[in-house]
Amino acid sequence: MIAFIVFFSILLLSNLSNAAGLKLKNLDYQVNLNSDGTADVVENWKIYIEDTNTLFKTFEIDKSKYKEITNVSVEEIKSSRNVNFKRIYQEKYHVDKNCFYALINSKGQFEIAWGAHAEDTTRTYQIRYTIVDAVKNYADCSEFYWQFISTESEIPANIVTGTITLPYEVSNKEDLKAWAHGPLNGNIVIVSKDTVKFEVEDLRRNTMLEARVVIPTNVFANNQNRSNQEKLQSILAQEQEWADEANRIREKRIKEKEKTRRILIIAVIIFNGIGLVLAIIIIRKIIKYHKKLKEHPVLKPEMEMKYFRDIPDGSATPGEAGFLYYFKNTSLQYNMSKIISASMLDLCLKGYLSFETIAEKKNQIRVTLKEKNTENLAEDEKTIYELLEKAANKETKSFTMKDFEKYARNHSSSVLSKINKIETQVKKQQEEKKNYSKELIENYNKWMGKGVGYIGLATVGIFIMQILVIPAIIASIYSFIISSRYHTLTQKRSK
Question: 143: burial class by Cβ within 10 Å (0-12, 13-18, 19+)?
Fold first, then answer.
């Protein structure tokens, strides 16, 4: 059952993909009605094909509308030479290249299918066929009633055109009547005493298109498809009913469009009113921001120096030095291995540990912890010392770097917890030394947030409140400039 569902889903997606990958740029019908009631039809397809190997054209079998379809041929129109497709007599889902079939398919429809085998290209095809008994002679008129495109068609079209030509001119043009059924944007016109034209733009998939032409009976004198019934008045009444319904739908759509237009006008007025108020508010803020800039001048060196110290004082730990050095460039966490290495060297200089090379093991170094009170260490160095203590042998108070790596792998969560603790401690220490300010950070973030907010407001304004765009952009520029004046590292001098 699951396999069937998967197969059906894949097949459905494939069909949807095929439909989405086809679009008729132009579809034209040339219909010649003959005096014996047959109709010779030429369909010209100019079609974009994304990735398809077979194209299909189906007709519902309806003996009340026509007897049969014969004389089918398919041809590809090329600039060099046209290609006449070879007819086969077997239904296939994938028709061979340059072949076609025309027969009653397994669904009981008359189907024309031909091998396209095209990918991401536009092709032009010409399909010819004859409809037997396409015209029916009644006692008071003759009727040609044909559905060119059914609701089952999955191929949309940019434009569909058609010309229906009579075998002879009618004596009085008023006796020639024509209607089209389908989209309300379609048009059908009697252009002369023997010609009717129709046209529809932007025909969507699953949309029906048909034409009905009523002609005096004497034009089809040789037609054997006859009925003694009088049909003209019922046709006129039916078409009037459908026309009235179409007009009601058309008027309803016009009213809906007019209602939508009014709503849009009101919305534009409201939004522009809101936009005007907001613009005034923003302009007033811009004036305040301009004054605020004077309170935060650009900081410049008081004297030109070729060299100056990055670290405020000599008591800074490696963690504090790294925090100050990497502050504007990256997070301290990305350089934690360097911080730990530098802290170990610093602890060695302070006499808290020692390094020695192991003679029997090349390139191996043993770290030995000294029995010493850590109360005088900064909090971040205490944390690193505690981490080293955990990795050291309890008896010898020493370890190699391989021992440390092994300990870190086996106790990853506790090691990471201590490493994450280091940055927090460093920030607190620097804040206590007044080298770093949370208040300045908060002000910096506040103005950066305002700048981003004004950019968002300007973006929205482009679509619904254009009056806001320029003030919002100016306010965002001021916000970003003010944020840049907040130096989150303080200007405290070292003595």
Answer: buried
Cβ proximity of 126 and 75 under 8 Å: yes
Which one, of 159, 206, 200, lies nearest residue 25 by Cα?
A: 159
pLDDT in tens, 284-307: 988 888 888 877 777 676 667 665
Confidence at residue 268, expressed as pLDDT on a 0 to 100 scale: 83
Contact indicator for 365, 357 with CB cutoff of 8 Å: yes
In 34-184, where do the E strands start and end? 39-59, 68-76, 83-84, 86-87, 99-104, 110-132, 135-137, 142-149, 157-165, 177-181
Please say whether the beta carbons of 176 and 196 come within 8 A.
yes
Q: What mean pLDDT value characterizes the chain?
A: 86
CATH topology of domain 18-230: Immunoglobulin-like (2.60.40)
* Rounded to 5°, angle at Cα 239 from 238 and 243: 120
**What confidence tens digit (pLDDT) does each residue in 375-402 have?**
888 898 888 888 888 888 888 888 888 8
The span from the CA of 408 to the CA of 416, in Å, is: 9
Tokens of residue 46, six digits = 């100019």
Positions in the chain whose pLDDT score sits under 70: 1-20, 299, 301-303, 305-312, 328-329, 361-362, 487-495
Q: How many other C-beta atoms lie within 10 A of the C-beta of residue 414?
A: 13
Distance between the two ends of the chain, CA-based, in angstroms?
82
Q: What angle do CA 322, 326, 328 make, to 5 degrees?
A: 150
Question: Boundaries of CATH 2.60.40 in the chain?
Answer: 18-230
